[in-house]
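explain this:

___
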Amino acid sequence: MPHNLPPDATGLITIDLDAVQANWRALAALVAPAACGAVVKADAYGLGAAPLLLAAGVAPVLSSLAEVEEWACEAFRVGRAVPAALQIDSGLNRLGLSAAEVKALAAKPEVLAALDLRLVMSHLACADDPSDPHNAKQRAAFNRRRAMLPPVPASLAASDGLMLGPPYHFDLVRPGYALYGGQAFRGGATPVSPVVTVQARILQIRTLKAGESVGYSATWVAKRPSRIAIVSAGYADGMARALSAASGKKGASVMVAGQRAPIVGRVSMDLITVDVTDVTGELRRGELVTLIGPELPIEAMGRAAGTIGYEVLTRLGPRFVRRHTGGGRI
């Protein structure tokens, strides 16, 4: 069995920590003199946060006036100001202090004095589209609202926002998805490289006659004698059912022995079926098929599934073994 995978494992996710570091360096160089953070939310976008964080001294990000007042009570208890960052809403209308809450907080100097305020931040709604006027409106709102607060470092841009240029960089940018090789910005390529390779095993190779079907509901019918690889990943592992091919609908592709091959038939809970008729060379049970990799970027799977790469990454299931390579000191 290749790569010493446990028998109950769906497959293998390899995360290149050297590539993560190289991506951070590229983004840090792009946004200088602004500082460049690193976002590891959602368990490092589903890839495993623990190997990315050896030690961290963190301050909470407070997103409402109620949270600010609760955290200020901790300062009164310990007898000193407590570290904190503030998130203010600039037009996303999700988390963040509203304009009225910012004004109310500015009128409470005793509460502000209880905070060792490290950062004021907000989040853009339409940063992937550089032509969207909402970006400039949010930047203006952010500037108005943070002007009511103590003069501390500011942050507005995440992975896509940092690509909007220096007016959006402020003192700190917060790349997350881009660190892992994501390319969601529609205004050009982000200067990052692929980080993630997702592979699953071939369980069987089957032969079909012309006219035979594959999978549930017989949605795909072979037009010629065909070889079908049964691969150990399904929608229980994050392989969206929408990746399925049917008569008249093209499905997603995978890489088999370095060659592109289409998913055919329905994606099921634990399995996908791949047409390997045109793949040259002998294929064996246990060989790994690449689902995501340099030739099959995250965005390609997202488009094929009718979603975005962010969702693809964070949906990769726990039955995949995750292995981290590299990762020397930055």
Residues 80 and 162 are 35 Å apart (CA to CA). The first strand starts at residue 11 and ends at 16. DSSP finds eight helices and 16 strands in the chain. The first helix runs from residue 17 to 31.
